[in-house]
Amino acid sequence: MSIAFLARLARCSSGPHVGRNGLPQMALAPLPLKQDIALYSAIPKRQIHTPSDKRRSGTRFDADSSGRPTTWDSFGIWDNRIDEPILLPSSIRYGKPIPKVSLSNVGCASLIGQRKENEDRFQLSQMTDNIIYFAVFDGHGGPEAADFCHKYLENFIKDLVAGEDNLELVLTRAFLEVDKALAKHLQCSSDAPGVNAGTTATVALLRDGIELVVASVGDSRAMLCRKGKALKLTVDHTPERRDEKERIKRSGGFITWNSLGQSNVNGRLAMTRSIGDFDLKGVGVIAEPETKRIVLSPVHDSFLALTTDGVNFIMNSQEICNVINQCHDPKEAAQRISEQALQYGSEDNSTIVVVPFGAWGKHTNSDTSFSFSRSFVSSGRWA
Which Gene Ontology BP terms does the record give (predicted)? Predict the structure, then answer.
């Protein structure tokens, strides 16, 4: 679909978004570009009919006069089981149809598992007119650090976005600022849990429905399903990583292993980056996130999944991808993943956020070859 065709839709529409039912019901005049002429020639011509005949529509958008929009797969674009309007300004800018992501269709689930309390937190919001915010936090040493990020991190990001267009830079600065703010909060609060409270943070910003930017510290993850395959957007910050281990050692810290074979910083923390954990900041544990920017493909990208380690330690990324692809909608998918992690033996809190994209429902891979060599050891960050 060319930019010229999208521009014609813009001139025919009355609002900023054009829904699948809201596209102009009219025959289009021949367009000057070759690809547009080909598109025009593919539109069925109006046929002569009698009152007893089934009336055929003169456009592709309601070909059987059923009142239901033709699925986008009829255009050879995608097969989306979730009906979403098209973001017209973004579609014109990028030269291809881009579906809107509605928060009402995002799936979220968080189960306590075998823990005494749920220290996981998740969040999603329409942060600005063109940016949507998604986040998961997995607290340790109490829920205070996760609660603080849940309450304030979005505000830091929103303030920075007003003056900075680079979303990777925005997220990096926001993580560092919320870490400093948490330190002051713990120092000033008489009932604060102390300097060993901390949290992972995995945040995704979706701008214009197509630009996805992810930032993460700790071992919560972000994964994109592309063409039915899991594409990892984050890498865990653990002492097993050579670059992370070297930074800890250069800063005067050390790595130990507990009886379960888990590596820990200074015998306490099973991650090398986090928000909080101020007693370990002097030995190389940092709050600076690693970031990644990716341009989505509405034709190939089905969903984004943000998960905490209660899910990640028991199910690999492709397993998560396969299970979600079998689900009818993201809400069912989030519930199924969180429950399945517990059924497989996870004792930690299990949290997931599933964000549907343009190709939702297109890649229904039936591969269910899950690993039977799972570790049924309780995941944790403490030695």
Answer: brain development; digestive tract development; heart development; liver development; negative regulation of apoptotic process; pancreas development
